[in-house]
What does this fold into?
Amino acid sequence: ISVPLSYFAGIGGASRRGILIKGANFLETLTAVDTVVFDKTGTLTEGSFRVVEVTGTNGFSQGDVLRMAARAGAHSTHPVSASIRRAYTAGGPMRVLDLAAVAECDEIGGCGVRAMLDGVSVIAGNDRMLHREGIPHDICETDGTVVHVASGGALAGRIRVADTVKPGAAETVRRLRSAGVRRLVMLTGDDAHVAEQVAAEVGIPEFHANLLPEDKVAAVEAVMAEPGRPSGSKVAFVGDGINDAPVLTRADVGIAMGALGSDAAIEAADVVIMDDNPGKIADALSVARRTRQIVVQNIVFALGVKGIVMALGAVGLASMWGAVFADVGVALIAVVNATRAFRG
It folds into this structure.
């Protein structure tokens, strides 16, 4: 009774902290996690972008660039597209997003969006998107994420959007290291310049940038196949977007941000952080390890007492009350001890 009850109490204790663990097997897996892989946007950062700069080129004005990007990404659910639409419509009552002449909208994962606007092909995306479409451009390295906008095969301008690191992200990294996590990795579809800034700010030494969704799966698989990993150690992946669902499924334990995370990510994850606070990841490891300690205590106590009473009984020194204590008494004490996992 005490062993499953301890795990149920641990799951209940985690839920009181806003951590939904979908089964006792995942609680057990968390105790062996020694590597945590993070997605960047929405996990370590707020995931709420804002437009901070618009630049026009080749005869296009700032207004032209912003309008084209907003219309091209009108049907995209990506946070960057949403921030561009907000910036455009916030420009005044005349800034209405006219979609009458928008056709052939196409969202390309990990790259950007493409649409026909008034019969002209317009794209808005990252540097990979420009290379994909064969559009000449120069190298642009700046703070924040850059959305390149092109019209009719020519670069029209750039939009710089900024995201902010979550207040508790750096503290989460420190707590995970204190908890014995030996390797921390950050994955992102952003360029290396942005990834390096965020990784340095939160204290993660290893990062991989310019990744497509399938590249993230490959990166996690490479981490899991790392030579010399301790036997029995597990890899956790933390993400929130719909593109993270395959990685959440592939990792030993997938952890999703539940407040702003996509339904697909929440469904695929084994653990859900209900308030998107990254600090809850360290809490989840703490609850899992405390629960396992209680399980071991109960097993050792129950078998130890029963063994002692059996040995005494073999030489005629055990009474009936001793046998009752070894059975019912030990069970009750183990149950009471199991409830500590719920409180902690």
About this structure: The chain is about 45% helix and 20% strand.
